[in-house]
């Protein structure tokens, strides 16, 4: 049965056409992986399906009574609200009743109300009415389900009452996933749900997607996750005639890669064969026209017209793009720097009772590649901010070599001013003509019209590429990277991996991307339960030792 249907949908954002005339039918029970280059409209398509953005043309229809849940790329929640209250807020009526109950309970503790029997009696009746409404709305069941969801997703109970702004990116993402599931939707739309999640939580997410009864659409660049969860790949591709089009492939990601490669090879063969036939017919047309010019004969003119009609009536095979353009990334240090890049000396950090680091010690040499891993909320991003001097240590120190210049990539793009344009962001770190800045950004595959838009309007992948373009201008000899492959498509992630391999300076990277860590790092720092442990060797060596 069809769950949702898009018919000839178009979307224009910030003066830029994202897609035009796109059609798509989603069936109940399908597990769909939505893939395609960054900036081609994956997130926009999910927002249209979720009803957040209205299409500029075309129609979106849903099966009667269909419940839709949507998880955006970055889920922040409401500042000041606890994690558990943020989850309960997904059920709007219950959240409103709970707020009224809290207000009434404050009145019940008010000395003036307690001293007035009539006022206290009114407040008691109001409280009883609210409790009855709460029970009728399924409040107790919702609370129990919310608790069960958080436990099933591995969300630490000691963080349930922590304000949203004090949670890690991975913890906020888990709350967002739980909010989606709490309403028991029929259609689940997940935009980069694995971003910021540690490896254990990724495994739990995979179980959630596999066990979901309805239709799921997942945008992800994690090849493992797509292989483990989806049975259909829908690819946003580009056609010279139609612009962005949607192609459907049965099977998981690995199956899609194989099918797509075979389809491209067949298309190339068909294109070559058709071009040969066109050339043969065009040569025949030229001969008949030549003969008709020498000897006036209606038969030659008719034969030339027939041959031309044969060419015009062909279903033209588009020339396949066997290898798409890749972004150009090359980190060049302005100077080599000293032998020792960074040293952690008895470093300690806590937030209240939450201990992040106790007596952390390590030396990072220039040219070394260090991967920082650990559970969500353990303090990996905090460690990076201590290294960068953005947070003060409670005790101990971070020593940085006098000739070391750091370049920082933030997982939530905090290094960017969202009110600037990409051109302004680039010129801010290095003086250059506007045309040169545009050329640099286009080497990062940013569309020309996107270079003059506010960064706030760009997709997550486009923001990531602007951040990388800025970093490349810095000439840093020590790169500090927090989840750098989040929001990057697979081709861009591979370019980043190659650039980091060639980089001559030190690299410190927080990541849950198993491909990146396996390819890049030669030492692993694990942050867990307030302790930082150092493991010699690459990520596979670390993972094997953890399993043992």
The average pLDDT value, as a whole number, equals 87
Structural class: alpha/beta
User: What's the overall geometry?
Assistant: globular
CATH arch. level architecture of the domain at 340-547: 3-Layer(aba) Sandwich
Rg for CA atoms: 29 Å
* Amino-to-carboxy terminus distance: 47 Å
Strand order, biggest sheet? 5-6-7-3-8-9
Relative helix content? 40-55%
**Largest sheet: number of strands, sense, barrel closure:** 6 strands, mixed
Produce a short descriptive summary.
Helix content is 42%, strand content 23%. The chain is built from 18 helices and 18 strands.
Write up this protein.
- Helices cover 42% and strands 23% of the residues.
- Helix 8 links the parallel strand 6 (187-191) and strand 7 (215-219).
- The protein is built from 18 helices and 18 strands.
- The strands form four sheets. The protein has a six-stranded mixed beta sheet with strand order 5-6-7-3-8-9, with helices on both faces.
- The two termini are 47 Å apart.
- The longest helix has 42 residues, at 253-294.
- The chain has a domain at 340-547: Rossmann fold.
- Helix 6 (139-152) packs across helix 7 and helix 10 runs antiparallel to helix 11 (298-312).
- It has helices spanning 42-50, 83-88, 92-108, 111-114, 117-136, 139-152, 169-182, 199-211, 223-229, 253-294, 298-312, 380-388, 422-429, 434-443, 460-474, 490-502, 514-520, 539-547; strands at residues 2-13, 16-27, 31-35, 57-62, 68-71, 187-191, 215-219, 232-239, 243-250, 340-351, 354-365, 369-373, 395-400, 406-409, 478-482, 506-510, 523-528, 531-536.
- With 548 residues, it is of the alpha/beta class.
- The mean pLDDT is 87.
- The chain is globular and about 115 Å long.
